Amino acid sequence: MRRILLLIIGLGGGLLVAQKYQVVVDSTGYNCGFRGLCAVNNKVAWVCGSLGTVGKTTNGGSTWTMQKVLDSTKSEIRDIEAWDEDNAIILSVKDPAQILKTSDGGKTWKEVYTATKFETFLNGFAFWDKNQGIAYGDPIDGHFEILTTTDGGETWQQLVKEHSPKATKDEAGFASSGTGICVGKKGKVWFGTGGNASHIFVSHDYGQTWKHHETHITHGMSSKGINSIVFVDDNIGVAVGGDFTAPDITDKNYSVTTDGGATWHIPDKHKHPSGYRSCVDFITKTTFIAVGKNGIDISYDGGYNWEVVSTQGFLTIDESRSGTTIFLAGTNVLGRLILAK
User: Fold this and answer.
1) pLDDT number for residue 111
2) Which long-range contacts (CB under 8 A, 24 or more apart) does 243-246 make?
3) For residues 4 and 337, what is the distance between their CA atoms, to the nearest angstrom?
């Protein structure tokens, strides 16, 4: 275990406030690219990733229990949602795309959805509550696949093609962290895209009807676009991404909105995140953290200006819902970003 104590200077109430964050990097000993992460509280968190791997901690990240849930030769489990240490649901992206659930802490898993089309590629899912959830996948026949559930993921219904969001040519989503989609109050949901376009698709009725908006985040290649999106309320949101083949490039790698996603802009003459970013989360309404292959950045002004926190690479981040611990996961690494007392 390696512990790094970092001093971060932020703005609070018009005064400079010194905030100390302790980055704890745990050597997992597993050959796994961790992509999905769900922090239930300060003690319980779940992760998932390559080689059919799912992991869980019940002691705040000090130790993790790992298991192979699916075929380890090909399965990429890119997203996970958990409600406690017993109940969780995972999403495997392709060959075939699958969703599985556990109610006994991961001892057994039940298949609740398997794609019938070989082309199906699921990018991620999100839940409004324990019952209502939504998943999205790359376009088939020009339309993004949308799946919804109203029974906690026990069954999934696919939105008919005519009502599914329409994609431009060579437009797709990213399954880089399971956070390319997020939900808000009263049926709001947003997801981001890349490739030929970097759009945010928005629905206000639990994914039944959709509109899309331009973000100006870099696009034009299959490796470029929006990888992650988060909203702190109905209006304020931040999207991050870039080019995953060029992790140090900062050009057009984020965008912000203050009107619920109707309009987006890349702030002019502001400090961008320090490279490609695969995941973004918020700590407070104005404090955001973004992670990527080359490090961690933090913003104290609603996502406009960013400062480097660490050069340790991670792929996904999640703050505990009922606590203060911020869990981190990446390629062969699990960690935490903890506010020092």
Assistant:
1) 97
2) 243/218, 243/276, 244/174, 244/176, 244/276, 244/278, 244/293, 246/276
3) 10
CA 294-299-301 angle, to 5 degrees, is 160
- Number of folded domains in the chain? 1
Question: Which pLDDT value is given to residue 25?
Answer: 85
This model's pTM is above 0.90: yes
Spans in the chain with pLDDT lower than 50: 1-18
Terminal Cα distance for the chain, rounded: 20
Q: What is the pLDDT of residues 200-211, one digit of tens each?
A: 999 999 999 999
Q: How far apart are CA 70 and CA 50, in angstroms?
A: 10
C-alpha to C-alpha distance for 312 and 305, rounded to whole angstroms: 20
> Could you list the residue range(s) of the whole structural domain that residue 72 is in?
2-339
Neighbours of 331 (CB within 10 A): 15
Q: Please give the pLDDT value at position 26.
A: 77
Q: Taking a C-beta distance cutoff of 8 angstroms, is the pair 21, 296 a contact? A: no
CA 193 to CA 287: how far, in whole Å? 24
Question: Could you give the C-alpha distances from 292 to 39, 108, 237, 242, in angstroms and in order?
Answer: 18, 32, 19, 10
Question: What is the DSSP annotation of 69-119?
Answer: -S-TTT--EEEEEESSSS-EEEEE-SSS-EEEEESSTTSS-EEEEE-SSTT
Residues 124 and 114 sit within 8 Å (Cβ to Cβ): no
φ and ψ at residue 54, rounded to 5 degrees: -130, 135
Q: Assign residue 35 the CATH number of its domain.
A: 2.130.10.10
**Amino acid letter for position 338:** I
Distance CA(320)–CA(44), nearest Å, equals: 8
Task: Take residue 59 and report the two structure tokens written for it.
Answer: 């002691």
Give the HSE-up count for residue 178: Cα atoms under 13 Å, Cβ half-sphere.
31
**Hunting for tokens 């080019």 — which residue is that?**
243
